[in-house]
Amino acid sequence: NNIYITILKEKTGESNTTNISITPLNGFNSPVTLSVQNQSPSLPSGSVVSFSPGGGTSQTLNSPYAGGSDFKVSIGPGLTSSQQYTLTVQGVDGGLINTTDVILNVLVKNPGWQEI
Predict the structure, then answer these.
(1) How far is residue 3 CA from its own chain's centroid?
(2) What pLDDT is recorded for position 90?
(3) What is the phi-psi region of residue 96: left when phi exceeds 0, alpha when psi lies from -120 to 50, beta otherwise?
(4) Which of 23, 72, 86, 102 is least enclosed by beta carbons within 10 angstroms?
(5) pLDDT exceeds cutoff 80 at 111
(6) R_g over Cα of the chain
(7) Where does the record place Low complexity bias (predicted)?
(8) In the chain, what are the domains?
(9) Beta carbons within 10 angstroms of residue 72's beta carbon
(10) Terminal C-alpha separation, the chain
(11) What is the pLDDT of residue 109?
């Protein structure tokens, strides 16, 4: 899964969304809680990850898991150069844990002008 943000230097921005889906196997039907467990490198201060519907930093999906969860990232101010981040999204149900990586590509554009 890849998501993208284009921002002007030192401004904030919001990514597009990617869907995190749950595929039950062998009769599995327990609630699954999704959250981000790792960021590499760490997101800038003021950044927020969100799952929707609901918009929280975590989300619990119930069987039959229809539609999954839409995941996006809002980048806080202060980023001055383009960066790629790996965000590990974890799904947990009691003793079961599964993960998937979401790659966040942030393109920082520096506003400017030129003489013509």
Answers:
(1) 8
(2) 97
(3) beta
(4) 23
(5) no
(6) 17
(7) 40-52
(8) 2-108 (2.60.40)
(9) 19
(10) 42
(11) 87
- Per DSSP, 56 falls in state B
Strand pairing report for 96-109 and 48-52 = unpaired
Contact 10, 79 (CB under 8 A): yes
Give the β-pairing of 69-75 and 18-20: antiparallel
Q: Are 68 and 20 in contact (CB under 8 A)?
A: yes
The per-residue pLDDT for range 7-21, each reduced to its tens digit, is 888 788 999 999 999
Residues with Cβ < 8 Å from 99, sequence gap 6 or more?
A: 37, 88, 89, 90, 91
For residue 91, give the nearest of 20, 10, 7, 25 by alpha carbon: 20
Two tokens, residue 6? 């284009």
- In this prediction the pTM is 0.87
